[in-house]
Amino acid sequence: MAELHDLTALEQARKIRSGELSPVELTEHYLARIERLDDTLGAFLTRTPDIARKQAADAESEAAAARREGRELPPLHGVPVPVKDLNQVAGVRCTMGSRALAEHVPTVDDHVVGKLRAGGTILLGKTNTPEFGLPCYTENGLAPPARTPWDLARSAGGSSGGSAAAVAGGLAPVAHASDGGGSVRIPASVCGLFGIKPSRGRISGGPLLHDVSGLATSGPLARTVADAATLLDVLAGAMPGDPFAAPSLPPGETFADHALRDPGRLRIACLTEAPVPGIEVHPDCRTATTETAALLTGLGHEVEELTLPADESVLLAFTRVWSVLAASRPVPPGREELLMPLTRHLRDRGAEVSGTDFTRSLYAFRMLAQSLADGLMPPGGYDVILSPTLAAPPAEVGALRNDADPQAEFDALGAFTPFTALYNATGQPAVNVPLQWNAEGLPIGVMLAGRYGDEATLIALSAQLEQARPWAGRTPSVW
Length: 479
Description:
The protein is built from 15 helices and eleven strands.
């Protein structure tokens, strides 16, 4: 018999609008699942049941009033949406995955949280993240590791591993996440979810922790393309003070609309070799990509093999900027010794980067974006680039950590994720599509990247793939 968490977020929202489903009932269902399963999955750093119940009661009253008055409600009104613990919710602990900030309670909302409040969503809690979101696993000194529900011995990825574990394990219908080097797409790949890294400037990072490098952005994680596109609509929109702003959709259009549209015939480049020197791509990841290319060809698209020259200069630029961002995270005086070895290592490296080298690294990102826009993806060029999301299947918990040698750990993280950071550097949108599972029953994601500002094409193409080979009905044993 179907349960409430079997419904998509949009199905839940429709039932709430019609009065068939109570936000209070829905919230209690998820709170009970969190109580039962979260210690196993490691999805949450902080649970907020009191806030959730108050918001659910308010959402129920508002839904009843809207029905009486014939008013429209926001598309996810009454639907639970947890927030990653790198983002601030006023009055709720925000640790950023660090013991150094274990008691930090902000007094203001980040803009994305304000948009979720305005959208009538319900805060179940703050999801698990590694310290400052730096590595691509979710292990810290505050909570159990985030695990993929498909194999509890394996990591849910990072840095949005808690958000992915929550959605893939049925602890939330959708979740807020963020991505500075792959942190939406990596956990989406290892947890069998659809995740969107939007274009630079699509979602505000303010008001307090703007990423002036342009690498990081919030984004949605969901089981279906339509759910993710709808959450993107809720989160999107530039705010005063933002350093970047992506082109808006035409008036009256939404990203959710594009999940219902035919993408047309597209020209797609298929990339199977990593654009980083010396990286071997696992056969499962190659197979997932080539099978997706065949599916796209069968759907009428033009797919061509592509090889990008391996370039260490972009990796060097990313490492410098990533280290400076790590060094820029605020740590209270006297609490540096509480930081993880990798964090301390990156902060030390970041402190040594000169202003000139930092600027040159940002300039390298812009030149890379320009070369892709002019040479590879101009009008009449490729519309989309297909590649593996990761270079290997989901890793076991602890396998990517090396506290004794943080530089070796950082190198291993890069070898696991050689495809994802490219689009953080360029600012282009990219999505993980969960089309494939390997012989061990582990999800193996593929990535689609589009032109800057063109999330709409990626959403329409992903929805076409989802219709051709549905994945949302495939669930792990904890479901």
